[in-house]
């Protein structure tokens, strides 16, 4: 386990370096400049370039950025005057993590339940309806789901708050918008695993020993079918991370996703790069934790 963790941490650091390097140089080739206010004179722009170190050769900027990252310094925002990017992200990170985890938990729990119901009613009307719903959940992007939820539950019916963050009611719609695709994926995958498990030899043996269908399902089928579902957690976390940016913008949630979206038109490069790095770290840590949980849940899996 220790050797595996050291190897994965090394891979994580190399991947993180690649992400930092790509994000830095991509920002350099983007057209335009963050100092595009027509009221700024050439002398004022030159002073601002000097203040942010943009007048130095590119390799020096890159070397300084890498050194600053090692000390937890993501630079200073161009648009939020004298505000360190690390502070801006830290103020919003908790909101995004809360929303993402809540959506992931809701989606997985509901998906396991509905997937089990679908598997136990294989090829009948209930299974057909649930299959259609899960297919729609996978096919429709989360931001479209968010807009539909906002229109009906917020504007037309007035059942929940439209936007903002601070109360439980304000988390319902964005959580559902992110959880529905997760729910759909888990439903389809768990249904397939349940059907396959129920047809295995050891399940048939358990039935032959006199166990009822409910006992066989509860004691054997559920647990063995849930283990493969754990492999989906990493990719689903990635989908939530990429989808949360637009969801946070739609529902006016003060998370790093909203900050990322608003920093693009203003060309606030330090914020864009800092948010990208945080997203990458969160994704890689989620995948690593998923692998560890799978190895603990299934003794047959060996990390090496």
Task: Report on this structure.
This protein has 304 residues and is mainly α. Helices cover 75% and strands 0% of the residues. The chain is elongated, with a radius of gyration of 24 Å.
User: Could you give a short account of the major beta sheet?
Assistant: none
Share of β-strand residues: under 5%
Tally of strands: 0
Assembly form of the protein: single chain
Helical content class: over 70%
Instruction: Return the string of H and E elements.
Output: HHHHHHHHHHHH
Figure out the total of helices: 12
Question: What is the arithmetic mean of pLDDT?
Answer: 84
Shape, please? Answer: elongated
Distance between the termini: 7 Å
Relevant terms:
304 residues; mainly alpha
List the helices and strands and how they pair.
Layout: H1 2-29, H2 42-51, H3 58-70, H4 85-120, H5 125-139, H6 142-156, H7 168-198, H8 201-208, H9 213-229, H10 233-250, H11 256-263, H12 269-297
Helix pairs in contact: 1-12, 4-5, 4-7, 4-10, 4-12, 5-7, 6-7, 6-10, 7-9, 7-10, 10-11, 10-12, 11-12
Task: Describe the structure concisely.
The protein is mainly α and 304 residues long.
């Amino acid at each position: 386990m220790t050797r595996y963790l050291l190897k994965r941490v090394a891979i994580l650091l190399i991947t993180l370096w690649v992400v930092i390097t790509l994000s830095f140089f991509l920002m350099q080739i983007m057209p335009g400049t963050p100092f595009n206010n027509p009221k700024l004179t050439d002398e004022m722009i030159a002073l601002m370039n000097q203040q942010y170190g943009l007048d130095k050769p590119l390799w020096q900027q890159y070397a300084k950025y890498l050194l600053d990252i090692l000390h937890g310094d993501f630079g200073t925002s161009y648009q939020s005057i004298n505000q360190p990017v690390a502070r801006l992200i830290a103020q919003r990170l908790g909101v995004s993590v809360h929303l993402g985890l809540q959506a992931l938990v809701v989606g997985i729990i509901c998906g396991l339940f509905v997937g089990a119901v679908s598997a136990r009613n294989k090829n009948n009307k209930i299974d057909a309806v649930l299959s259609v719903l899960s297919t729609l959940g996978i096919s429709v992007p989360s931001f479209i789901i968010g807009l539909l939820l906002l229109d009906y539950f917020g504007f037309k019916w007035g059942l929940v708050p439209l936007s903002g963050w601070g109360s439980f009611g304000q988390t319902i719609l964005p959580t559902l918008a992110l959880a529905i695709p997760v729910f759909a994926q888990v439903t389809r995958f768990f249904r397939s695993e349940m059907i396959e498990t129920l047809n295995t030899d050891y399940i048939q043996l358990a039935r032959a020993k006199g166990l009822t269908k409910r006992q066989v399902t509860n004691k054997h089928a559920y647990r063995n079918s849930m283990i493969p579902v754990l492999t989906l957690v990493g990719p689903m976390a990635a989908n939530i991370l990429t989808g949360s940016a637009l969801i946070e913008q739609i529902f006016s949630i003060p998370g790093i996703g909203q900050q990322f979206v608003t920093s693009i038109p203003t060309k606030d490069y330090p914020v864009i790069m800092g948010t990208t790095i945080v997203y990458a770290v969160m994704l890689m840590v989620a995948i690593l934790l998923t692998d560890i949980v799978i190895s603990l849940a299934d003794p047959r899996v060996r990390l090496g």
